[in-house]
Amino acid sequence: MSNLIPLQAPGHSNVDYEMRVDMDRLRTYRLDRAKKSLESSECGAFLLFDFYNIRYTTQTWIGGALGDKMTRYALLTRDGEPMLWDFGSAVRHHQLYSPWLKPENNRPGMLGMRGAVAPSAGLMESAVREIKALLVDAGVADSPIGVDIVEPPFLFEMQRQGLNVVDAQQLMLDAREIKSVDEIMLLNQAAAMVDGVYQDIVDVLKPGIRENEIVALANKRLYELGSDQVEAVNAISGDRCNPHPHNFTDRIIRPGDQAFFDIIHSFNGYRTCYYRTFAVGSATESQRDAYKKARDWMDAAIATVKAGVGTDDIARVWPKATDFGFANELAAFGLQFGHGLGLGLHERPIISRLNSLDNPIEIKAGMVFALETYCPASDGFSAARIEEEIVVAENGVHVLTRFPAQELFIANEY
After folding, report:
1. Residue 306 near residue 396, CB atoms below 8 Å
2. Rounded to an integer, what distance in angstroms lies between the CA atom of residue 289 and that of residue 284?
3. How far apart are alpha carbons 391 and 183 in whole angstroms?
4. What domains can be seen in the chain, in order of their start residue?
5. Tens-digit pLDDT profile for the chain (414 aa)?
6. CA–CA separation, 362 and 324 (whole Å)
């Protein structure tokens, strides 16, 4: 962690009179972390298909419609610089505008678009042959090669050509778990954008508006504010609140509804996961009580977080699944929940009673994660959902999510 104090929501642009996000420093930090993780392992190289890992190591990105087709991949060897295989003309664009990658390390790649071109066409065979030759040149062909995610035919082809494939996803998640000052500033900026969108939502959250209209509003405002990807906006209201469906519909919001929203977007790749719950016009005692319980569980979790504690310590302050109407922790997973934030929506640490009690990991300074609580109301259909994003510092925690949430917020109160 740098001694530089991250500015709170520093703005979308860099200026000459303040130190804001330093993109060169960000790129160097991420690649150094990936290299150190590789050096600490048995692997001679990482072959990466996960598009967050590709961005982390090559500092490149193209739209999700192409980025998730398993056609982009990157190779990082122990003593080499990152190599990238990308889609069509994106290669030439990187050669022109991404000078941190050697021009010859930008190559066109095409493996079949998740099976649309069958493996029998030979694209995977030739790609593995090329990768193996590069491993031989780097002197690491006899060492295991770490792969994060992979299509089965590609894995089979690697094995057929004699490569020893092992898991690299754990090693890359190790690299990504501690955020730099620049990553924290980008995460903070992303959260600040959602702060503003929640004010826009409050202004229109009245009887007659539909869930999908609010989703449209949030998308529009986020892109206007500079978002590079709105991954999802959940809008849940009224009798859809319990059980939590994790989606939105065209339901018309009515007087007295409880409604909660989750806004997931990214700014320069860095994501939010940011729930807020509102009452529409008025609130019942049942709704207020559910909100208070969800808030108490949230505050207890935040109070527990500090460098050196285990994720089991945090999970234990949350109620058991059976305490709020579920048969077991698997059925309730994601309701009392914590997850790391970064280039990916779900990074380390993952905190829940399902996995953390028996397999805890240590909380470290520099981690950034979201904490989520959920409480069904006694009326049988309302529910409260709260989420806070926090940065773990050496001397405590900092909350990034600022829209008021200590008490149930009543929008457009009658």
Report:
1. yes
2. 9
3. 11
4. 23-176 (3.40.350.10), 181-411 (3.90.230.10)
5. 445 567 788 888 888 898 899 999 999 999 999 999 999 999 999 999 999 999 999 999 998 788 788 999 999 999 999 999 999 999 999 999 999 999 999 999 999 999 999 999 999 999 999 999 999 999 999 999 999 999 999 999 999 999 999 999 999 999 999 999 999 999 999 999 999 999 999 999 999 999 999 999 999 999 999 999 999 999 999 999 999 999 999 999 999 999 999 999 999 999 999 999 999 999 999 999 999 999 999 999 999 999 999 999 999 999 999 999 999 999 999 999 999 999 999 999 999 999 999 999 999 999 999 999 999 999 999 999 999 999 999 888 999 999 999 999 999 998
6. 27
Task: Identify which of 298, 295, 383 has the alpha carbon closest to the alpha carbon of residue 337.
Answer: 298
Q: Who's near 228: CB < 8 A, 6+ residues apart?
A: 266, 267, 268, 269
Q: How far apart are CA 236 and CA 78, in angstroms?
A: 48
Give the H or E element holding residue 124.
Answer: helix 123-138
- What is the C-alpha separation between 288 and 290, in angstroms, rounded? 5
- Which of 206, 243, 266, 185 is closest to 414 using CA atoms? 206
141 within 8 A of 77, measured Cβ to Cβ: no
Long-range contacts of 129-135 (CB under 8 A, 24+ apart): 129/161, 131/47, 131/75, 131/158, 132/161, 132/162, 132/163, 134/75, 134/77, 134/83, 135/44, 135/45, 135/77, 135/163
The amino acid that residue 33 corresponds to is: R
Q: How many CA atoms lie within 13 A of 171 on its CB side?
A: 25
Ordered strands of the 106-108 beta sheet = 106-108, 83-86, 73-77, 45-48, 145-147, 165-167
Q: Are 12 and 222 in contact (CB under 8 A)?
A: no
Q: Distance (Å, rounded) from C-alpha 127 to C-alpha 376?
A: 52
Count the residues in the chain: 414
Q: Which residues contact 274 (CB under 8 A, 6 or more apart)?
A: 191, 194, 262, 263, 264, 370, 387, 389, 401
Instruction: Confirm if 121 and 153 have CB atoms less than 8 A apart.
Output: no
Q: What angle do CA 241, 245, 248 make, to 5 degrees?
A: 85
Q: What is the pTM assigned to this prediction?
A: 0.96
Neighbours of 208 (CB within 10 A): 10
* Residue 105: CA count within 13 A, CB half-sphere: 18
